[in-house]
Design goal:
about 100 residues, mainly alpha, about 90% helix
């Protein structure tokens, strides 16, 4: 008999207890999965930030490489001009006069 004087159906009570335990287990599982999902979202957010930072570094490195390439090209042009000037300065005056006459 239960508290109200009704006969207790033992198999039914066991089923209710089992269902309550199952619901409690499911709630625990849902809570655990929710925590794991939050951890996964946090890790994904961190990975996204890292990816954006890496992309920014790569873009800056590419811009620096382009600027360095342009500076190298300008330096090569200056070098060619200086080499021509040096060759001209090393040529004796008489040969320069002869070359100037021939060019006319």
């Amino acid at each position: 008999m239960d508290d109200q004087g009704q006969p207790v159906d033992e198999p039914r009570g066991m089923v209710v207890d089992f269902l309550q335990a199952t619901v409690a287990d499911l709630r625990t599982t849902v809570n655990n999965l929710g925590q794991q999902l939050e951890k996964a979202r946090t890790a994904l957010d961190a990975a996204q930030v890292d990816r954006l930072n890496d992309r920014g570094r790569a873009e800056r490195a590419e811009a620096q490489a382009v600027a360095s390439s342009e500076r190298a090209a300008a330096a090569e042009a200056r070098l060619a001009t200086m080499e021509a000037s040096l060759a001209e300065a090393m040529t004796p005056l008489l040969i320069r006069v002869i070359r100037a006459v021939r060019r006319r």
